[in-house]
Amino acid sequence: MIGIVDVGVGNVASVRNMLYRVRAKAELVSEPNRIHQYSKLILPGVGHFDAGMERLETSGFKAEIIEYSKNQDKHLLGICLGMQILFESSEEGSKNGLALIPGSLKSFEGRVPEDYPVPNIGWRKVRAIKPNPLLPEFTEGRFYFVHTYFLDADNSAAIGQTEYGVKFTSMVAHNNIFGVQFHPEKSHRYGKELLTNFSRL
After folding, report:
1. Contact 50/13 with Cβ under 8 angstroms?
2. What is the pLDDT along the chain (201 residues), one digit of tens a residue?
3. 3-state DSSP call for residue 75?
4. Cα(88)–Cα(90) distance, rounded to whole angstroms?
5. CA nearest 172: which of 187, 183, 157, 186?
6. Rounded to two decimals, what is the model's pTM?
């Protein structure tokens, strides 16, 4: 069973609906102490880094997610903002992230050519650069992105890269923790495959 963290910072219904489509059992979780009953946990999110962290802190989810991540028999997946807050910090705000993976997010502003609109919105190629537990047979595919902040391509946890004016990390894996900058629930074939594989870890 997969738990989907519901603190009002992401379209949790679309994530749940895609999991239903791939026949993975999932339910929304709004009580922090309940997350430990799930073998897998998804942390979705859209919006501002500080606002996302504020919701996790005031709801009590921050401490519980950090504790959850210590159990190597469980698996955590962050999506979009949910991936970003797995890291230490972001130029988008002043709050600390969950710091489950070393690294910090940067803005595309001033780092991509002027003819690249910011935020990065649309379908982009993702290339596998290391063995990928979420997509074992995957070398390259297209996924749907919506974001302004990015993780450097040389991050030690990177397993997938994308290019949008600069190369950046679009998929990460660190022990039992995974993250994707794109939205698998909006990414059709490859998104379905990724969520199916996550449900089977």
Report:
1. no
2. 999 999 887 779 999 999 999 999 999 999 999 999 999 999 998 899 999 999 999 999 999 999 999 999 999 999 999 999 999 999 999 999 999 999 999 999 999 999 999 999 999 999 999 999 999 988 999 999 999 999 999 999 999 999 999 999 999 999 999 999 999 999 999 999 999 999 999
3. strand
4. 7
5. 157
6. 0.96
The SS3 call for residue 88 is: coil
Separation of alpha carbons 68 and 71, rounded Å: 6
What's the DSSP call for residue 102? S
Q: Which domains does the chain have, with CATH numbers?
A: 2-200 (3.40.50.880)
Q: What angle do CA 134, 86, 38 make, to 5 degrees?
A: 60
Q: Which positions are catalytic?
A: 80, 183, 185
Interaxial angle between packed helices 49-59 and 61-69, expressed in degrees from 0 to 180 and rounded to the nearest 10: 90
